[in-house]
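Q: For a teaching session next week I want to show students how multiple molecules come together into a single three-dimensional assembly. I've collected the sequence lines for a complex. Could you give me the predicted structure tokens for the whole thing so I can convert them for display?
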Amino acid sequence: MQVVMQEQTAAPQGNLVTIEGLCKSFGSAVVLQDVNLTVKKGEAVVIVGSSGSGKSTCLRCINRLEEPTAGRIIVGGQEATGRGVDLNALRRRIGMVFQSINLYPHKTALGNVTLALRKVRGMSKHEADAAGRRHLELVGLADKADSYPSQLSGGQQQRVGIARAMALEPQVMLFDEPTSALDPELVGEVLNVMMRTKDLGMTMIVVTHEMQFAREVANQVVFMDAGRILTRGSPEEILVAPEHPRIRDFLARTNK
Amino acid sequence: MDQIIHYFFDFSLMKTYWPEILWGFLVTVEMSILTVAIGIPLGLAIAIVRLYRIVPLNALIVLYIDFFRSIPQLVLIVLTYFAVPYFGLVLEPFAATVLALVLVLSSFAEEIFWACINSVSRGQWEAGRSTGLGFNQTLFQVVLPQAIRMSIPPLTNRAIAISKGTTLGSVVAVPELLNVTSSIQSNVANPTALTVGAVLFLLLFLPFVRFTRWLERVYSHPS
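A: Of course. Below is the structure for the complete assembly, covering every listed component.
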């Protein structure tokens, strides 16, 4: 049996996100058990595993959309867990992209991107619009600034979602199955934007079922199973020549 | 045929009463506008307070809403006018009627707003909060604009239904349109006045009803 590799938190330097002993239960259902993970600055960590393995919950604990039951999370050298954490300030430093996209339907693409710039960062409308357009350009949607979400394709909507999160210039971006709700033909454009995000040096934690993307982009692949990290390593170790039968099983099912 | 014309359309009988009818019409318009202008914002305010989930306060809110949604408007108007003075608050018939209708409309409006706020997906809250917006900012910038948009058609319907309750003010002698026209009817022993009243009510409410139709069409096909 493969023993889970346990990084200790001895070297916080260069570690942008540190998760220690993270546990989460919903009532009597245990969703996460003693999850430990470190993410270095500029690194892309891809979390894979079957549905219900706790991947999304783990991600959502980092920006406290879920309240951890136990454990400690440090983001950018600052405590993210425990009492007295300014959640709004924490979330300002953490961008999130959702499976269900969650664009504001009553606002244009630009309005979606600029809302937090104005209300959270306190930018003037002029500054926010300029920054917003810059980030829409980054995701290739400069010409869609004035379109409403209902006028955009799913892939375009998700790219606006990425621009909305990136515009706040977060320290780390969380991607929660960003392409799972999209038609297969629209997945590529979103993954391309995510690769560009990585190239810009953004630290990323990505929950996805896109194994090709994981192989190409991940510095570290984490395999979760039943609320635990079963194993982790380079994409080659985990996705190309996995030793663990559970992973071989999983890959056989996902690759078909 | 002549009979019908004589009974319902003998406008010559109205000659001396037009100013009175117009006055009654204005009272009805005034009461309707006041009811809507106070009742709907009050309902929204209550729905917002309820969102903060302060347990004892929410129990009171639910009690308030359920009470005023259950009690017939006529009973409430009579109660407000005749019973409230025993608690030291004497209200003019006009004020008593408006107050009663405001209480009822605010309760229905609250339920409509509450349902619409809750039907905005959790993902919208999460999207707002994940970008560092606070609860209030997310509520006012993200959730309420969507909820209010959804609530407009049912709200307009409800506002019309309750505004028509202004006619109930006649039981406490508010000189509104129904009261005026029905007393003219008994003075001249001819119901033409009621015909005039009916036409004026239609004139007041039909545009609103058409307006809700238009809204429903617009909102069922979002751009």
